[in-house]
Amino acid sequence: MVPVTAVCWVLVMIGAIIIHLRHGDAKPVVGNLIYLAQAAFIAWGRFGPESFIG
Fold first, then answer.
1. Number of C-beta neighbours around residue 21 at 10 A
2. In the chain, at which residue ranges do the beta strands (DSSP E only) sit?
3. Is residue 43 a contact partner of residue 7, using CB atoms and an 8 Å limit?
4. In whole angstroms, how far apart are CA 25 and each of 4, 14, 17, 48?
């Protein structure tokens, strides 16, 4: 469940960045990028070629 949730979270953060930029609110984009990077790291680590699942 964690890898699927991480991929969904990446999609949510991309949508949030788009919405913030459309509304001219650039400050929250930094936080969204941090969350996006963390979720992408988890998804890559679980689904990637050398996943870190036991």
1. 13
2. none
3. yes
4. 29, 15, 9, 33
- Per-residue pLDDT reduced to its tens digit, 19-32: 999 999 999 999 99
Instruction: Name the nearest CA neighbour of 10 among 30, 26, 27, 34.
Output: 34
Q: What is the pTM of this model?
A: 0.81
Please tell me the total number of residues recorded for the chain in this structure: 54
Q: Which stretches of the chain score pLDDT less than 50? A: none
Name residue, tokens 């964690």. 2
Which pair of structure tokens corresponds to residue 48?
């990637």
